[in-house]
Amino acid sequence: MTTTKTYTLITGGTTGIGYELAKIFAEEAHNLILVARTEADLQQAKTDLEGAGVDIITIVKDLFEPNAAFELYEEIRSQHLTVDILVNNAGQGEYGLFADTDIKRELAIIQLNISSLTILTKLFLQDMLERGEGKILNLSSIASKTPGPWQAVYHGTKAFVQSFTEAVRSEVKEHNIIITALLPGATDTDFFHKAGMESSKAVQDESKLSDPAQVARDGYDALMNGDDKVISGLKNKLTVTASNLMSDQKAADTMKKQQEPVTPKK
């Protein structure tokens, strides 16, 4: 038998936007299941959030691995836990010209950003449909709205997430299931370090980076309001509007200039 408690499952819930989402959900009295790759990070997040008075379960799982999302779902089922809100936050990028970057790293990013997200969405969505209710928040990006030279694979994965989220939302909207996409822009997190992107023009001015706490609040509010998507921040809304007025080629060329290194690589 499942427990009477319900849980919000957040992947990548120990840092950045995922951690800020965990804080908000905890403050709003949601029990949490936090998923990340390292036990130490999970225990630190749990310690930080315990003051909210909610139940916090941590699970170590590396969603870069092909079977990890299936294993995560089965582990949660074996503990008879009910996930009423799924937050697919975990995601990474790889910076560089596509001809030069590591294909194994990029395939791992596709696994994390697309495959694991798709698996978790399908499995938990099926349970939500059986219960007749549920919510899913997928971390998309304004990168989903334009081709991204110097981050070609990352932008491609987010284009998938955005299209996938809107399609599945349409399929289930009459079944009391809410699926929302959160589209941040460049945000003050560890994303750029992990992507090896510190030299990019796009991240040189830290004052222009979005606050992850505000991004998380925008995502939480949009999910609770039942919105299909939210672009976080006025600057990012204007960026998407401008790119929508360009041809794909023009948008790609513009993004190439924005994301190239301060000193272009040979």
From TrEMBL:
Spans of biased composition, class Basic and acidic residues? 250-259
Residues of the region (Disordered) are: 246-266
Write the record's keywords in alphabetical order, separated by commas: Oxidoreductase
- Record-linked InterPro entries: NAD(P)-bd_dom_sf, SDR_fam
Is Oxidoreductase one of the keywords UniProt gives this record? yes
This chain's protein is named SDR family oxidoreductase
Question: Is the keyword Nucleotide-binding in the record?
Answer: no
Q: Which family does it belong to?
A: Belongs to the short-chain dehydrogenases/reductases (SDR) family.
